[in-house]
């Protein structure tokens, strides 16, 4: 279903992601769709999402929890979901688009929450546009050239096929551990994603999915970046058993970022650790952002 188009609106934003309207803003002639909720004052928190994700893939418990005290903005990057244009096949180009989107909304400074691929994008934005960013939260992600990141394509394809054969959502395998607790958390998360029943976003196209996989693979093959140039306070979180972006990358990020703060790795959790432990994550994220 096509997402409705509207212009940036100064009217009060909703407090529930389930009812947040889908809006659009033109970025150099290309429409980017987004949702905005929470109080309007203060520094906005812009969310950068993971591989294949569209607006409806954010856990509503995380969004609503953060939006209780912060202005939260989610959006689809170029060519993703209902956003127009062609999806870039490099993280750097995605970061450039993210900066253009943020500025199109009129924001002079934002906080960033990047999950997985979104965490790669957040690192590039912070390094290239340091004045635009105040604080960063990196979840389930890693630095350029991090161990295992170049294997994301093969793992994703394998678990997508497994999902098709077992009639399950591949996120059950990719985001959660294969334990009783992990399977239960995965089922609960997937049910939460169904709570919004109207004005849902379009699924990602196959061409955009391929472009994202190429960008992630390139990120995984890059030479390690100098993270010392990212001086922003940064909160780093993940599950202890991340298969997509191995959890050792989380430890590496926290150690190499000058102001990196590590959230103790969530037990019996994987790539979707912040969704499995949404209450704990939201509390820690708000504490970090408001400090």
TrEMBL record:
GO molecular function: hydrolase activity
InterPro entries (UniProt xref): AB_hydrolase, AB_hydrolase_1, AB_hydrolase_fold
Spans annotated as Disordered: 1-22
UniProt entry keywords in alphabetical sequence: Hydrolase
Keyword Hydrolase carried by entry: yes
Pfam families reported for this sequence: Abhydrolase_1 (PF00561)
AB hydrolase-1 domain span: 44-275
Highest rank taxon of the organism: Bacteria
Protein name as catalogued: Alpha/beta hydrolase
């Amino acid at each position: 279903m096509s997402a409705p188009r509207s212009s940036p609106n100064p009217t009060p934003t909703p407090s529930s992601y389930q009812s947040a309207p889908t809006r659009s803003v033109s970025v150099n002639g290309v429409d980017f769709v987004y949702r905005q909720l929470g109080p309007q004052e203060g520094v906005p928190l812009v969310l950068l999402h993971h591989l294949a994700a569209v607006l409806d893939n954010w856990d509503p418990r995380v969004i609503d929890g953060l939006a209780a005290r912060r202005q939260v903005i989610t959006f689809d990057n170029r060519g993703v979901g209902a956003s127009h244009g062609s999806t870039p096949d490099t993280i750097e180009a995605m970061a450039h688009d993210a900066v253009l989107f943020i500025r199109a909304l009129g924001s002079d400074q934002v906080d960033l929450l990047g999950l997985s691929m979104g965490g790669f994008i957040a690192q590039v934005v912070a390094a290239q546009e340091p004045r635009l960013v105040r604080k960063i939260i990196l979840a389930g992600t890693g630095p350029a050239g991090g161990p295992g990141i170049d294997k994301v394509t093969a793992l994703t394809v394998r678990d997508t096929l497994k999902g098709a054969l077992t009639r399950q959502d591949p996120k059950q395998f990719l985001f959660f551990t294969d334990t009783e607790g992990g399977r239960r958390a995965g089922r609960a998360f997937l049910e939460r994603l169904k709570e919004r029943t109207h004005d849902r976003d379009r699924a990602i196209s196959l061409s955009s999915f391929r472009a994202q996989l190429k960008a992630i693979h390139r990120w995984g093959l890059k030479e390690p970046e100098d993270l010392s140039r990212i001086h922003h306070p940064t909160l780093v979180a993940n599950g202890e058993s991340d298969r997509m972006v191995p959890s050792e990358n989380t430890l590496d990020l926290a150690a190499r970022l000058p102001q990196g703060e590590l959230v103790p790795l969530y037990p019996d959790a994987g790539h979707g650790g912040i969704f499995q432990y949404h209450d704990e994550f939201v509390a820690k994220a708000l504490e970090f952002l408001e400090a």
